[in-house]
Amino acid sequence: MTPLAATAVGKRYRARWAVRDCTFSVPEGKVVALVGPNGAGKSTLLRMAAGLVRPTTGELRVFGTPVRGRIHPDVSFLAQDRPLYGNLTVREMARLGASMNDRWSTGRVEEVLALQAGVDENAEIRTLSAGARTQVAIALALGRLPRLLLLDEPLSDLDPLARDETLRILMAEVADRGTTVVMSSHLLTDLREVCDHLLLVDAGRVQIEGDVEEVLARHRILLGPVTGESELEGARVSATRTQRQATVLLRDAGPVPPGWAEVAPDLESLVMGYLRASRDRRKR
Ligand SMILES: Nc1ncnc2c1ncn2[C@@H]1O[C@H](COP(=O)(O)OP(=O)(O)OP(=O)(O)O)[C@@H](O)[C@H]1O
């Protein structure tokens, strides 16, 4: 069953669309990178999937069930503001989690906390650094034993060690339990090593979506003379030019014309190419 599917989903705040006509589906047991610049609509999409925000148009389904104003029992959501009670200790917060959730594993929370070297279970939440609070929030999210884990910018305030710990915990979660993880970031570098599936959004719209290897395999970067661009076959995503040389990102490229060199893009250059195209469309 598809963990998360969106059909023509849009969200309008007053006159402005935060998310527009988004259609995608997320494969089971994979790590999905929800990437896009600031203000792209990532948090809005995740909040809609968690049932916290109602779409203006379209529909989201979680494991086949339409999301209707409440979180699906198989979903955990880590919100960007990490809502935790500052005057409780980490241990007390975990006990509160147990009392608030029908399905809960204290053992799982303790297991995750034990893997997070920088988190003291007896410390009051308000004394913790932002990074440690994020780690506690992730442990609590896993305590719900989710089948779908939605994480809004989970790595943004973690130091390199905590980031590494967190990624290992999430990788083990996917490998051992088959959990699907959707993680947002405005930096692809955060997620590049771990993601199987890419969902790139900008200006509220999906720019590209799919299995990372398949997406990469469909694209080519061609370098050649600016005067010869009309010879290129394939769907042009974007291009940059110096006086003499053009660098063109193509989808489903045809044969390479004489005088042109071909390079396989990495995920970084592919994402940059799509974001450049999106920005150019907005400028027009
Ligand atoms: N509650 C709200 N009321 C009005 N506008 C909103 C609200 N929430 C989000 N927006 C607007 O919707 C757009 C998308 O915001 P969103 O937070 O979803 O983007 P994002 O990709 O998560 O950005 P960031 O990486 O900065 O967190 C932005 O222009 C934002 O200002």
From TrEMBL:
UniProt keyword Ribosomal protein, yes or no: no
Keywords from the named record: ATP-binding, Nucleotide-binding, Transport
Domain named ABC transporter: residues: 4-228
One Gene Ontology MF term: ATP binding
Taxonomic superkingdom: Bacteria
InterPro entries, alphabetized: AAA+_ATPase, ABC_transporter-like_ATP-bd, ABC_Transporter_VariousFunc, P-loop_NTPase
Pfam families: ABC_tran (PF00005)
Entries under PANTHER family matching the protein: ABC TRANSPORTER ATP-BINDING PROTEIN ALBC-RELATED
Descriptive protein name: ABC-2 type transport system ATP-binding protein
